[in-house]
Each structure stands twice: as structure tokens, then as C-alpha cells.
Design brief:
The protein has 362 residues and is of the alpha/beta class. It is built from 12 helices and 18 strands. α1 runs parallel beside α5, α3 runs antiparallel to α5 and α11 packs antiparallel against α12.
């Protein structure tokens, strides 16, 4: 059974830095091939930060072993897993993957393990956490997001994902029953120089009672710079709701009243009124390399992309499956993973960058 601890370091075949969706999926894919891993998660348990995640049930099922498939399928619902049109709520997907990892004896999750440096030598890769503990492994995989620590070593000349020039305000709202027939799939509404993307969220029984939404906004870069969330072309952090001035929320509410139609308008306004919205500066990273010796990158650490692609998690699942295949071979060689995945990573990010350049330019 996976154990959530903070403390003792031990050598493991695979060390995964980052315990969000990509890291958990990779650990489960490796376990399906009989390979043990330790996942270093910087927090004491994830919080409900994400909104909508498009899940390909077929791809995810192929990556996972039978036991994990059963747990994830039961949590998300067989009807919801069997469709590919509606996204799932981020928290639902994370909770399902974490439950599967916690039930897998080949996976150890170490919480409150914030990695500050990684490296390698002839016999092992290593990660040092801020409490001074050093974890070692045969290979180390960076699933630590757009501000990846592992990327600084894998490609030291290009360690930073670039700010795409706009923010997406993310929220989740209840869908009024009277508008249930409006939930026909992702929907996009153009504003002045902004856009509202609406994503009905699939329930476990296949129904739709909630929707996630993203307000794509190119007009608040100055705010992000003023509060230190963006510095130059680098995104330093995603600001918490209390870091955004009240007058900005008030302005967004006034704009929403005249810009968006129902039922989306009321949900957006309510989220801003309750400060239940995440101002997410969008980052993009076009990888040149994703492997260095015993170290490799996956997910947003390897190919951060605009949510407009709708493929961030799908790409991370593909990464996980490729890593499991490469590392379960008679002679594990991460260079093969780079050969398998780098062209697809670059193609997906490049397509997203075309949108971002056009959108940010107005």
C-alpha cells in the first residue's frame, strides 16, 4: 500500500518529482509493468486548484494496470470514463489517481517533500529536499510542472517556461437544471479582445450538473507584474485569490454583466463575487530536449502548453505510457523515450503557441 510520509530517504528504482496528475499516472503506469517508484510531493496533499481536465478513458486505461483501472474507473464512473467529449473535474481525476496510487504496493508517496535540487552520478540520480533529505534512484523523472526544478538540470540553458502574454481566470459553477440541454460540449464565446471557454463537466453517472470555465484575458499583464506573479517572461507563481485587488474583481464582474450570456454569466459573476476563481498566468515551454542521462521530464515540466489545446493531461498520459515501456525493457534507456516523445511534444506546444501569439497580440 502506498504510504504518505515525510522523512526517511531510500534508494528506489524510479524517483518521480511531483505528485499531481502526471506524476501519479506515471507511477501507476510503471507499477503496471512491475516497476517500483517513489513520488516526492511538495505539499501535504493537493488542494482543489484545477478545473476541467479532458480524459481519454481508453488511453488512461491502457496506461494503468488492472487494479488501478478498477479504482479509477469506479471513482470516475464507467459511463463518464467511456466518453471523450466532456471533461472531468480536475479534483475528481486527481482523487481517483491518488486513491489508486495509495492502494498500489509498488508506489510510495512522500508528502511535504519540496525538491530544491537534483543531479546524477555514474551509479544513481538524486533529489535533495528543503529539509536536507537526499533521495536516490536508478532514474529520476521530473513531473514538477511549469516551474520544474528538474528542467534546470536537464536543459540548463533553457530552464524557464515563457509567459504567453495572457491570464485565464478559471472557475467552476453549477449548471441550472433549466439549461441542462445547453451542455453540448466545449463552447467558446468571443468578447471584445477576450474569450470565455465553457466546459460542461461530466458527472460519475454520465450527467452534467456543473461546468468549468476559463475567461481568456490579455488585459491584466500589468497586474501580474505588479504583484510579482510575472517577472519579465517568467511566471513566478499563480496568485492566490487574496493577492488580486478587490477593484480587479469588481471590474471583471461589471464586464461579465454586459459581455456574457446566460447561464454562464451568472456563474461567472458569482465565482468572482465569492473569490472562487483562479487567475492563471499561461506558460508555454517548447522542449529542445527532455532527457539527460538518468533524468527525464514529462507533463508540463516537458511541454507546458496553453489550455486551448485541451491536451495537457492526454499528453502526460502518453508520456507515462512511453516511460513505462522504455523502463520495463531489458535495457532501460531514457534516450528512447526522448526519441519517441519529443516530436509530438514539440508539435503540440507549437500549435498552441500559434493561438497564443494571435490572442495576446489582440
Amino acid at each position: 500500500m502506498a504510504v504518505s510520509v515525510s522523512g526517511a530517504a531510500a534508494h528506489t528504482p524510479t524517483l518521480i518529482v511531483g505528485g499531481s496528475l502526471g506524476g501519479l499516472t506515471t507511477a501507476l503506469a510503471l507499477a503496471a509493468r512491475g516497476r517500483r517508484s517513489t513520488v516526492l510531493e511538495r505539499t501535504g496533499g493537493r488542494t482543489q486548484r484545477g478545473v476541467a481536465i479532458l480524459v481519454s478513458g481508453a488511453s488512461l486505461s491502457r496506461a494503468l494496470g488492472p487494479a488501478a483501472r478498477d479504482i479509477v474507473g469506479a471513482a470516475l464512473g464507467p459511463v463518464a470514463m467511456g466518453q471523450g467529449t466532456y471533461p472531468h473535474a480536475w479534483w475528481d481525476v486527481y482523487s481517483a489517481l491518488r486513491a489508486a496510487a495509495d492502494a498500489e504496493p509498488l508506489i510510495t508517496v512522500v508528502e511535504n517533500a519540496a525538491v530544491v535540487a537534483v543531479g546524477q552520478h555514474d551509479k544513481a540520480a538524486w533529489a535533495r529536499t528543503e529539509d536536507g533529505a537526499v533521495h536516490t534512484a536508478d532514474v529520476l523523472l521530473g513531473a514538477d510542472g511549469y516551474r520544474s526544478v528538474v528542467r534546470r538540470t536537464v536543459d540548463a540553458d533553457r530552464p524557464v517556461a515563457r509567459y504567453a502574454g495572457y491570464v485565464v481566470w478559471l472557475g467552476q459553477s453549477e449548471l441550472p437544471a433549466a439549461f441542462a440541454d445547453r451542455a453540448g460540449g466545449p463552447d467558446f464565446h468571443s468578447g471584445a479582445d477576450d474569450m470565455l471557454a465553457v466546459y460542461p463537466l461530466i458527472d460519475r453517472d454520465g450527467g452534467v450538473s456543473r461546468y468549468g470555465w476559463g475567461w481568456f484575458d490579455p488585459n491584466h499583464t500589468a497586474l501580474l507584474r505588479r504583484i510579482g506573479a510575472v517577472d519579465g517572461t517568467e511566471v513566478k507563481y499563480t496568485p492566490r485569490p487574496q493577492a488580486v485587488p478587490d477593484e480587479v474583481y469588481d471590474d471583471m464582474i461589471r464586464t461579465a454583466r454586459t459581455r456574457w450570456s446566460e447561464p454562464w454569466r451568472s456563474g461567472v459573476i458569482e465565482a468572482f463575487q465569492n473569490r472562487e476563481v483562479i487567475a492563471t498566468p499561461i506558460t508555454e515551454y517548447l522542449p529542445r530536449r527532455v532527457v539527460d542521462g538518468r533524468l527525464a521530464l514529462l507533463g508540463d515540466a516537458a511541454h507546458a502548453q496553453t489550455p486551448m489545446t485541451g491536451a495537457g493531461f492526454e499528453e502526460a498520459v502518453t508520456d507515462a505510457a512511453a516511460l513505462a515501456e522504455v523502463l520495463s525493457g531489458a535495457e532501460p534507456d531514457l534516450r528512447r523515450y526522448e526519441l519517441l516523445r519529443l516530436p509530438g511534444m514539440r508539435a503540440r506546444v507549437s500549435a498552441g503557441q500559434s493561438f497564443s501569439r494571435s490572442f495576446a497580440a489582440g
